[in-house]
Write a structure and sequence with these properties.
The protein is α/β, with parallel strands linked by helices. Helices cover 38% and strands 25% of the residues. Strand 7 (158-162), helix 6 (170-185) and strand 8 (189-193) form a beta-alpha-beta unit.
């Protein structure tokens, strides 16, 4: 059984259709890369999966249950974690407090379990050394680490990564990729929106291309990137 099954999913804002009849599946422990031009519906897709928006039509099945009308916090407690393209920490709170809030209020964990999960996430992401610092003082790389750390604190079964490598140097991207690889090895399936293609090529087992709110291509990353339609729409060739 697939971990995620999206069927005929559509979302409109007023008269503007952003997602249009999308069908998409994600297997257990799969890493799925998502690319597409600006306005293709990538972030809206994440908002629909995570519960920020309700679908206009269609269904989102997670572990066999339709969650299309579930509240965002309920989806979080079902194990759907998410990062944001622009990091959104509680700037005046410490790094540790940011992660602890995610574990308690996002993951619904008890105080004891939340502390343990927060400490493990900090160790995994390399932020344990900065746990007492205000989040607002972190570098971009460490802000990206903190976004990932907060998502991990809920014990995700599904992790949604939104341009986690964006704005980083090649060396910083490689450091972050090592963390994502470890998260995947722990059993999380990942859907990853990313414009840094070399990052997706390293980890994604499958790549989909969104265009005009629908699916333009789906398959092996190298085959998808070699598709003339993808080159025309996404790479501008």
């Amino acid at each position: 059984m697939n971990l995620v099954e999206i069927r005929r999913l559509s979302k409109s804002f007023g008269g503007l259709s952003v997602i249009n009849g999308l069908d998409l599946q994600l297997g257990e422990n799969e890493i799925l890369g998502v690319i597409g031009p600006n306005g293709a519906g990538k972030t809206t897709l994440f908002n629909l999966i995570s519960g920020v928006h309700a679908p206009s039509e269609g269904s989102i099945f997670y572990r066999g249950v339709d969650i299309g009308r579930a509240q965002a916090w309920d989806r979080c407690r079902l194990g759907i974690g998410r990062t944001f393209q622009v990091p959104r920490p509680y700037a005046r709170m410490s790094v540790y407090e940011n992660v602890l809030v995610a574990a308690v209020h996002g993951g619904g964990l008890s105080s004891r379990a939340a502390r343990k999960e927060a400490e493990q996430a900090l160790d995994l992401t390399g932020l344990a050394r900065r746990y007492a610092e205000p989040a607002g003082q972190l570098t971009l790389l460490d802000l990206k680490r903190l976004e990932l750390c907060r998502a991990l604190a809920i014990r995700p079964r599904l992790l949604l990564l939104d341009e986690i490598a964006g704005g980083l140097t090649d060396a910083e991207s490689l450091a972050l990729l090592d963390i994502v690889r470890q998260v995947h090895r722990r059993g999380a399936a990942i859907i990853w929106i990313e414009h840094v293609l070399h990052a997706l090529r390293r980890l994604a087992s499958r790549l989909v291309v969104l265009h005009g709110g629908g699916l333009l291509a789906d398959g092996d990353p190298e085959a998808v990137l070699a598709d003339p339609r993808v080159k025309a729409v996404y790479l501008g060739e």
